[in-house]
């Protein structure tokens, strides 16, 4: 009875907080990064809590501009937002609203259809956050049968740095993974035919959402975790509640046929775009065979995660790519060792054992090089070790939740002197494994942490592991929760509405020059202003090229494939004026395109933006329309 009351109170509080946040149009986008590139109109402050994260450019520079553009232009599945070429937005992943059959599996984007761009963006973040907490709660409740542990660890997952720093794609695929297991479990648990139908329908949404994320590096490891989880739940089902009855077959057929039909329509309509993506060097042609992890000790870099959002604490430069460095706080390898230490008390729990095997499975992929055919058969050839680490960390948190639920607290504790020795050994282990990381390279990421902050983290994690080994569960859970909260709660800012995107001088000039949003805009020597233009609902040629627009470059006269082939499936395009056309690969996902005045006309570009005046602009068929002195921006009309 107490557990039911606790569960209801927990869910009511979470629903209430999320409702209030949605009411005030809260979102967690870093779109205020555009203030670095554009001047703001005076006295146009908008309430924002926290700091925008430049490293999350795949959010504020890719997905958010596309979400806002779609909302302002009709949410079509195919769009000419870069100009003359159609872009298939259904293949873009699960976070872009599109009017096609895949919308069934994109519940986080439904707000853009019903509420417009401002509330739609809030819906995307708040409903996603709500679902992450609730489905994490339900999954851990199923695995542990412990309401208190499920409540706290659902928040630990939601605020984990592995979620915060990987805020595009990762939260969605984890939610779908959790919801599939939860809906399946309750489908078999109930005998009510109406509830079974509801769960079967919700499974269609979750399964469609899962495959439509279209990010194999996380989907494939989660697929295996799903299989391991279902096996563990089945083996642990002592009361034999989970059985497939003859009457269930109708619901199974309904779910399977619905998912197959949705997938068939999607693949039929997106065949060309998917083929282009599959033939890029990354991710299409990349082949991973395991064993590429930089080292066992780097799995312990979570020691530094509480410091990452707070550069002022460290009094030294922060890592140069926080997202790549970050992940979940796993306490590795101690949970695995503790499981072995108390195995005789834990061996009855089959789910715990299955998760232990899954973590070993991940470690094998990290450190053992397998034959190519193994990677092909298992599909792990598409899973780099650093991406698998995200799911490894997520599984580790669930493993810890099960550990604290199962380890008996009445085992005789060790004496005081032995406790000191144990803490000393744990501290020395952390020191030995992480000292070189304090000033070194991890995944080619430069790191530098001050001695004071480093030593503070050593003490913190020593106590954490000590509490877990000594079975001081309440102290461990409180300290673990606070550690994760410090590491994750301030990663992303909280904006109330998106009116701050309207506070730039360029916003007003766009409205004056192209009020009906019919023109095609482009920017010179720029990657980010073009994205801002897209977020305002205007077509922007060099905003986002995904998938790569090979036909466009062929039509422009680039005849050799090597002239326009890019490494990444994304192409951020920087334009430059020149007497002759040429394409250069600047970095793995950035190309520089040199175009003539005639090329601008062929591409249908109407308006061109440049920082500073273009000398001899007449030679390129350009006519100056407007200057924005605050930005040193010159806007030109491309004559026909």
Number of helices: 26
Strand content: 5-15%
Average residue-wise pLDDT: 87
Radius of gyration computed on alpha carbons: 26 Å
Computed structural class: alpha+beta
The helix fraction, in percent, is 40-55%
Quick one: how many beta strands?
15
Low-confidence stretches: none
Largest sheet features: 5 strands, mixed
Layout of strands and helices, then pairs:
Elements: H1 2-23, E1 26-27, E2 48-49, H2 57-73, E3 78-79, E4 87-88, H3 110-144, H4 147-158, H5 161-164, H6 170-189, H7 193-212, H8 216-235, H9 249-269, H10 271-278, H11 281-285, H12 311-314, H13 322-325, H14 334-341, H15 343-346, H16 350-367, H17 372-378, H18 385-406, H19 416-438, E5 439-442, E6 445-448, H20 451-469, H21 473-488, E7 494-496, H22 505-513, E8 520-523, H23 529-535, E9 539-540, H24 550-555, H25 561-564, E10 572-577, E11 582-587, E12 590-595, H26 597-602, E13 607-611, E14 622-628, E15 633-638
Parallel strand pairs: 8-9, 8-13, 10-12
Antiparallel strand pairs: 1-7, 2-7, 3-4, 5-6, 11-12, 13-15, 14-15
Helix pairs in contact: 1-3, 2-3, 2-23, 3-4, 3-6, 4-18, 4-21, 6-7, 6-8, 7-9, 8-16, 8-18, 16-18, 19-20, 20-21
């Amino acid at each position: 009875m107490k557990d039911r009351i606790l569960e209801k109170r927990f869910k009511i509080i979470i629903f209430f907080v999320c409702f209030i946040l949605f009411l005030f149009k809260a979102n967690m986008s870093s779109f205020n990064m555009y203030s670095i590139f554009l001047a703001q109109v005076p006295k146009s402050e908008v309430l924002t809590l926290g700091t925008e994260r430049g490293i999350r450019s795949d959010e504020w520079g890719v997905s958010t501009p596309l979400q806002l553009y779609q909302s302002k232009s009709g949410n079509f599945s195919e769009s000419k937002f870069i100009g003359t070429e159609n872009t298939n937005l259904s293949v873009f992943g699960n976070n872009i609203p599109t009017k096609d059959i895949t919308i069934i599996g994109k519940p986080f984007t439904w707000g853009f259809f019903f509420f417009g761009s401002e509330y739609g963006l809030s819906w995307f973040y708040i409903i996603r956050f709500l679902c992450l907490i609730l489905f994490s709660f339900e999954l851990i409740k199923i695995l542990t049968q412990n309401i208190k542990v499920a409540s706290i660890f659902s928040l630990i997952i939601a605020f984990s740095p592995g979620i915060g720093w990987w805020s595009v794609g990762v939260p969605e695929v984890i939610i779908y993974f959790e919801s599939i297991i939860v809906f399946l479990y309750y489908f078999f648990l109930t005998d009510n035919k109406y509830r079974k139908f509801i769960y079967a329908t919700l499974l269609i949404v979750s399964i469609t959402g899962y495959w439509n994320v279209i990010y194999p590096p996380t989907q494939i490891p989660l697929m295996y975790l799903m299989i391991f989880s279902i096996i563990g739940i089945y083996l642990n089902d002592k009361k034999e509640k989970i059985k497939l009855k003859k009457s269930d077959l109708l619901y199974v057929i309904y779910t399977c046929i619905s998912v197959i039909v949705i997938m068939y329509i999607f693949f039929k309509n997106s065949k060309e775009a998917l083929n282009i993506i599959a033939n890029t060097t990354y991710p299409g042609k990349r082949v991973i065979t395991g064993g590429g992890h930089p080292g066992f000790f780097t799995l312990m870099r979570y020691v530094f995660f509480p410091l990452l959002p707070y550069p002022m604490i460290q009094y030294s430069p922060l890592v140069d790519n926080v997202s790549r460095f970050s992940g979940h706080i796993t306490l590795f390898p101690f949970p695995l060792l503790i499981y072995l230490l108390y195995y005789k008390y834990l061996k009855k729990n089959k789910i715990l054992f299955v998760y232990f095997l899954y973590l070993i499975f991940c470690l094998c992929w990290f450190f053992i090089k397998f034959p190519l055919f193994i990677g092909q058969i298992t599909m792990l050839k598409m899973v780099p070790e650093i991406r698998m680490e995200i799911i490894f960390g997520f599984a580790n948190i669930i493993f810890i939740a099960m550990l604290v639920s199962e380890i008996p607290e009445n085992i005789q504790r060790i004496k005081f002197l032995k406790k000191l020795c144990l803490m000393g050994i744990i501290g020395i282990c952390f020191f030995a494994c992480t000292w070189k990381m304090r000033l070194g390279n991890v995944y080619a990421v430069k790191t530098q942490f001050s001695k004071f902050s480093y030593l503070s983290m050593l003490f913190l994690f020593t106590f954490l592991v000590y509490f877990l080994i000594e079975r001081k569960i309440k102290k461990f859970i409180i300290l673990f929760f606070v550690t994760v909260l410090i590491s994750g709660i301030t990663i992303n800012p909280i904006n109330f509405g998106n009116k701050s995107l309207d506070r730039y001088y360029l916003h007003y000039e766009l409205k004056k020059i192209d009020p009906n949003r019919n023109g095609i805009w482009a920017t010179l020597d720029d990657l980010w202003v073009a994205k801002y233009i897209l977020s305002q609902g205007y077509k922007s040629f060099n905003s986002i090229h995904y998938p790569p627009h090979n036909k466009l470059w062929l039509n422009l006269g680039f005849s050799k494939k090597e002239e326009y082939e890019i490494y990444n499936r994304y192409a951020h395009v920087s334009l430059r004026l020149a007497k002759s056309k040429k394409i250069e690969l600047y970095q793995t996902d950035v190309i520089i395109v040199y175009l003539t005045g005639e090329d601008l006309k062929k591409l249908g570009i109407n308006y061109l933006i440049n920082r500073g005046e273009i000398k001899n602009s007449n030679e390129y068929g350009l006519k100056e329309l407007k200057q924005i002195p605050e930005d040193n921006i010159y806007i030109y009309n491309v004559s026909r």
